[in-house]
Input
Amino acid sequence: MGGGGQSMHAESPQDGKIAVTGVVSDADGPVIGASVVEKGNPGNGVATDMDGKYSLRVSPNATITVAYLGYTTQDVSVDGRTSINVTLVEGTSTLDEVVVVGYGVQRKRDLTGSISHVKGEEIKNVAVGGVGGAMVGKVSGVDFVTGGGAPGTGPALRIRGTGTFNSPDPLWVVDGVVGSPLSNMNDVESVEILKDASASAIYGTRAANGVVLVTTKKGRNGEKVNVSVNAYTGVTNLAKRIDLLTAPEVATLRKEAYTINNSTNDDYRDFWNDPNWATQRTDWQDAYFDTGTIYNVDLSIKGGSEKSTFYTSFGYHKETGMISPTLSEHYNILLKSDHYIHKRVKIGQNFQYALGKGVVQQGSIRDVLRYSPAIPQINEEGIVAGVYDNGGSRAYLGDINNPILYVQNGQDKSELNHGLSGIVTLDIELAQGLFIKGNYRASASITKKREFYPAIAGNQPFPRADNGVSLSRRYEDGYGVLAETYATWFKEFGQHTVNLSGGYTAEKGGWGENFSAGRAGYADESFDQLTLSNGQTVTGAGGEFNNEWSLSSWFGRAFYSFDNKYLLTLTGRADGSSKFPKGNRWGFFPAFSAGWRVTEESFMQDVDFLSNLKLTGGWGSLGNQAIGDFEYLSTIKKGAGSYFDYNFGGNQTSGSSLNHLGNHALTWERTNMTNLALEAGFLKNRLNATITYFDKNTEGMLLATVEVGTMGTLEIPKSNLGEVNNHGVELEFSYADRVAGDFTYAANLNLTFIRNKVTKLYGGEFDKTRYIAGDKYGNAELVIARTFAGDPMGSFYGHKTNGIYQNRSEIDTDPYLRNESADKRASIQPGDVRFVDINDDGKVDDDKDRTNLGNPNPDAIIGFNGNLGYKGIDFSFNVTANLGFEIYNATRMDGLSSNFAYNMYADQMGRWHGEGTSNTLPRMLMAGGANANDNYRISDLFVENGNYLMLRNLTLGYTLPKNIMNKIGVGSLRVYVTGQNLLVLTNYSGFSPELGFSDQGRGVDVGNYPITRVFTGGITVDF
Amino acid sequence: MKKNIMICLTLSIALSQAGCSDFLEPNPRGFYTEENYFTTEQDAINAVQGIYGKVLDENFAGNDDTKYEGCGDDILAISDHHAWDPPVLYFTITPGDALLADRQWPVKYEVISRANLVIMNVPNMSRDQISEAIQNRCVGEAYFLRAFTHWWLYLIHGEIPVITDVDVKNNNYNKPKNTIDEVLGQIEYDLLQAAALLPATTPAAEGGRVHKGSAWSHLVQLYMHWSCYDGKDAYLDKAIEAGSHIIGNPDYAMVADFSDCFTLRNGAINTEVLFQLNGDNGMEYNNNLEKGYFWELDGWDGWCWYWPTPDLVAAFGTDPRLQKTILRDGDEVRTYNGGSKTYTVDRSPTGYAFRKNAQYVLTDGGDFRHELSAVFAIMRSSDVYLLVAEAKIRKNGTGAGDAEINAVRSRVGATTRTGYTAADLVLERRLELAGENRRFFDLRRWDRCNHFGGVNIATLLSGDYNGTARTFQVPKHYFFPIPQNQIDKTGGVLIQNPAYQ
Output
């Protein structure tokens, strides 16, 4: 133990600090990733590199603390030395790791709030889903709700449940500054997720949905220049297909419908007797889904001198989707540097530029599942066919377009984004442990959108021959500035440790403008000729200023610990927002938490198996201001409007129109959270376990005010009405060990159990008259998800069913129908669905016999991941599971409805077609014919168990031996293969139990872009 | 060294605090908010204009309120193609089929909403933004129109939620009903504010704006209705007092020719018409006043729905107002720009049509068309004379209202006498105000008031109506139900009139 090495005074002439370098090793050689931190200044620390080397700037009389998982932490006095090598011995240590918290850092052992930590190393090279997607399964308490499989789509993060209907997304803070998620995940050094109120209260009004702190990589003082090149490529494809009817099966079933419905529609009969329509020609899923591709290259250069460090990275990522022409393409540049301009003054520069291009899906997946299999993809003329040119087919095959028609004809819906952000940071050391810090950021974004609809030529007579060739363009820009200054003070004296921070932040954003224009009629539809000027008729032109908002806040945090046993953190933030009326503009968001490190007590010293035991608990209040900018004010336009003009004394005059009603009583949505946690380390902290209970209540949730007549006829403002509760338990277990130097392994299991309930909407919990409507589905605009007070968010709502009527007598004697008219009973046929008369009034009606059919929010979210390393080989896996939730398979509901003219799911072969043939799938109906019983109304027939277990990631890598590499001038070289979404175990019958996400439509399968299976292979070279 | 640090420190604090004083003030661009809109006199005037504009809505005074006239015994209302009419006209109305009122409900509250915006903001404008005269006028107009709208909600439903500027500030729209006293009390307050703030008269160039006479006359009407509730006789004195601002005041004198009140066009005014709605020739259809179409004859551009009953025609006897009010077979119809057509009995299901309320214009082709700029009289001085006479008869008995009744009769050249009874007053109002949407609400008021003048509404309004038997139930049909749709939206806050529960 202890440090040896040269002892040479090399004090920097300007700042009195010296750069200390050295190697950290253990009995087997260099230790990679050990933390080396200046004692008493947790912000000043580094991790050792591939060679176990570190470099740190400290004053000559400082002490450095060296720590690594599974080893005893060592404090080494610098004593003016510039080179200190440290040899570690096995022991305990992780508690001395430093964790990034809002506006500062803290030692892990001092934490009293609830924070999850993910190392950049764990999420590198995940090909799809972005930084959010890469973290799936790695942390507890976070529900990663997939956004579907379209290129460039990442999951939505719901930290500790969905707390509100208003932007439940967490706040992203990149390198200490509020920002947006980073697109190049290989720039990430670490991610911290602040989950409870105590941890996130420093972000006050913006923290109600949790905070994600991303720290990017940086160079280190004294580090030699390191160039790293990483590239991978791969393919994506559809993980599962839906079985559909073949053309002969369709014809058979359609003929059956004619017979059992006693139809006299002879055109219908003749159509289906035509063998042309019983000839299988196209599998539209084959025609539509292709193989997608992924390319990724990123390059980073970093290094540092005595006074300056830099990190430069360039990233390029391209995904082409399995549905043509979907695309996502990104270029990212990150330029960072830090400079000591004075021995106690450091400035930092951080410049990010991202260029993104996206092409979104055109054809509808619902159409793919519904288009007639008897229609050839290419017709006799060699062109992509619409519905086959045969008079009247529309009525029998359905009024939809060939799903690949528009794509093939050059339809284009794309978007180009530029994002720019420049940050200057300031770090002044006023005295030992006392710092003044500042962050100053300007950012800009420009988005250009383009939409082009081609002509659908006349030689494809059906459907919707479209001559309205139109191009529309839209331009939007937005700007923001942020300035914040704060002070931090860290002091240890005797048994007392104090860590204070506080400051002021002001942010203004949202200003900018948008304009759009469109023209129709293009003589030449080739891409290069599609400019607005070449269009003949103007179809639209408009533009507006964006709404500007501002936020001004004071924040502070005080941490105190006594004897390293008793910990207390007090946090508060006062926020003022332009989004609220003057009297309600400022909100104060306090939080406190306390901790007791039981293992530090003397009576615990003899308990060997327990290396760490900490009990923490806290409470806090957070805000959410995610609402429109002028909700509290009535808005007025000058100039004429309907019923604003008047003739006074013979003079026509125009009035001003009031067009949005303000809610003058609007205020913050508030989330109060209680957190209790027990953290334990066993086996010298090789095994760590944390169990956390949380209870999170959102109050005054802003909801669209129920439109009551007394408001008049205007657009109505939101009101602080709703309440939501999320409570649950999080468990995290991690185990890591190193066996005899060559063999390392680690595993991490996390489980999250969450209960979500909307406790109040417009009335009390039992007010069943009002609900929040989910997204509308299909042409009939069905509202499948309806959130009533007392139910989980987005619960499905509809009829319960009890089998299929097998014969006439079952209908006539059904107590569910006892008070229905004879006509009504006669209209129901054997083979129809038996809907349950829930209120037992002898009638089945829409308004009284519908109920909650299921909950799309999982009860349990599980992640299990780990890695193994042996010599140069590394292997990692990640398995996740979501349990205890339902999916409403709306796509199947339509796919089974014989009342539509479209193709159907293959399940339809199991329909009822005579007594005893089926008790789950109703009889065939005539397409477009009578459907008196409305068999395909929203019911539990289409509710499925969503439980799944997914092998989300599997990576195998090999790092070539160093001695070989060094000979060819390469520092290190690693090759790897990765598979994503490889295996799904589920009973869910749709494409995937992970659906594209919308806040109001979670768990309703509407035929979104299915998630893809991804295979990639790549190489990383460090020079 | 220290200096450098201080420079950095200063700089950082300066950056953070930049523009701090009004940092949180929003900066709307491309539109206005109520906070930055009201900056000039014209802004206030334009905002007020929007209130008047909405009163013209066909779901409010522009047409729908006229339907209730058909509930009385003067008018046979026929508009087969509207499902919402029969339940009102035949007294079969239920909360579920109160569709007419359902159309009207949000439109009326929209007028109130526009008025509240003015009441909340214009009084805060500074003297360099707006002159005192215009400020008072604008606020007075808003109070008047808020009162007028609440009044019409009251006439139809009785107890309704009153929405004032205080409710707007508290975002308190989902309110339970106010009591009759609260509703009428709010209307009284608003009208008194209007009476204090508005100018005595309106110049011709601003014809159509309300003035003190509008407010006082509506106060008289309010008090007379209020006085019919138990224990509210004291309001008779208030009615008489309010009426004293009209009666004998040359600013509000009855005009020599009764007909002049019904032939005003293009924003023209006279002293007798105390509140009017102005049509306009040039505005888009949607902004225009449709009222006239429903009184004008089919073939002459009208879609006539309202026909005088034979009973009404008989009531006129030889009264000179018959000729000025009703068209009988062979009557000549003229327009202001010439032309003449003859009314024939076959045009009407009752044999009669209204001359009042129907204004035609002669086209170049010799046809009659609807006169788009026709002015509709909503309140006239003669109404006030008769309301005051009614108050006096109720207080002091037969003969107490002679002066006012004779003033009204002599203006039209009818015989005068003394000793008018309550029944005489009832008849006089019927003839003077026929077709002006007074009769049904008058009958209700008199019936409630111990059958004043012998009026028994259940008898008068029960029987055959356009071939359908109808029954007026007292007190159920004094008011109509609040539309179920509106009740449903409130989630139980709004409670139905008990007579319809």
Q: What stands out?
A: Chain A has a mean pLDDT of 86.
